Amino acid sequence: MNAPIPIRIEEAGCGSGEVLRQRGQREVFCGLTGIVWLHRRIQDAFFLVVGSRTCAHLIQSAAGVMIFAEPRFATAIIDDRDLAGIADAQDELDRVVTRLLERRPDIRMLFLVGSCPSEVIKLDLSRAAGRLSQRFSPAVRVLSYSGSGIETTFTQGEDACLAALVPTMPEAAPGSPPALLVAGAMADIVEDQFRRVFDELGIGPVAFLPPRRANELAEVGPNTRVLLAQPFLADTAKALENRGATVMPAPFPLGEEGTTAWLRTAADAWGVPAERFEQVVAARRERARRALAIHRERLVGRSVFLFPDSQLEPPLARFLSRELGMTLVEVGTPYLHRQHLAPELALLPAGTLISEGQDVDRQLDRCRAARPDLVVCGLGLANPLEAEGLTTKWSIELVFTPVQGYEQAGDLAELFARPVRRRGLLAA
Ligand code: SF4
Fold this sequence. Notes:
There is one protein chain. By secondary structure, the protein is of the alpha/beta class. The chain contains 17 helices and 15 strands. The strands form three sheets. The chain has a seven-stranded mixed beta sheet, with helices on both faces. Strands 4-3-5-6 form a four-stranded parallel beta sheet. α15 links the parallel β14 and β15. α10 packs antiparallel against α11 and α11 packs parallel to α17. The radius of gyration is 22 Å and the shape is globular. The two termini are about 40 Å apart. Iron/sulfur cluster binds next to α2.
């Protein structure tokens, strides 16, 4: 196991803060997890995991069983014959896909999702996707991406999926007017709220990636301005920049402050006057502040330790510290994209300890020594820490729950207040 390497980041803006970079044993889910929210988002897409029975169990237990609807994800199991090279996995895949598409004419977009087993046997899913796309287009578009757990964290599955979509986005006509593209999956209700705000601000046209339907992919080109709605989209942002789009750095739309700064970034790019901006957001900001105040009472002055899991940790830390008055003990993140996170890091208190990557035993020692009032961590760490008397919040819930925007600011705060309240009741 490597020793931790502290690296100073002068550009971070959080004073003399250091990034503690660790490379050791990690406790994270794999990128297949993203299918759980992506299949709800793109309503005519199907996710076919090419993996093992373990992958099938992970997806089934994470997503639950759909009783009333046809499922929109499945696993093509790689068995012993494939692993031994007896069967031609490409032929088998063609058979499975053909059967699936014959049975499900409602599918418009099919993702072949790679896993650890498919990567270990070097099954080339991009070749399969190209071949199958030719065969089934224009009715169905077939794409591929990796959701494997080899060197990834679970939110990278969404990044890989969206990055795979970017090359299929139509080219914007030269000289077309500026257009806003919001990248990152959000709940439909949150998207609708943001659409209304952009509309009232006179910002548009606005499109979202991923879209709700396969044929609603936005055009992209040099006039596309991108706002990232999630902090874990490094590959997607790069792919959009390669198509000529400009990514606008902004804090992420978590909490009242983050949402305001995020919206203001777009408003500034569209030249919306400050008074108009205030008029549109004032009532919404006030509602968010009132909703936050209830939870702030419970959380102010308490300490929080964030383990690296979702990559949402830096914006969450900013929200917990600035809007709820919590003290940050350590802010862990699996990866730190310095450029996309620069506006967030600039808002963290001076001296905040940020750690990138993980060496879980060392990190657990630091957490135990600090005895924080709240620990934000993955499922695998939560139960043991609870057994040691620490109060925990599962970070994966923050990705499954609508948390962005003004109307959700109170719900986001409640996700952290609830375990603290529960611990108080247990102790009483
Ligand atoms: S992709 Fe890898 S880590 Fe994820 S469930 Fe399958 S085998 Fe496990």
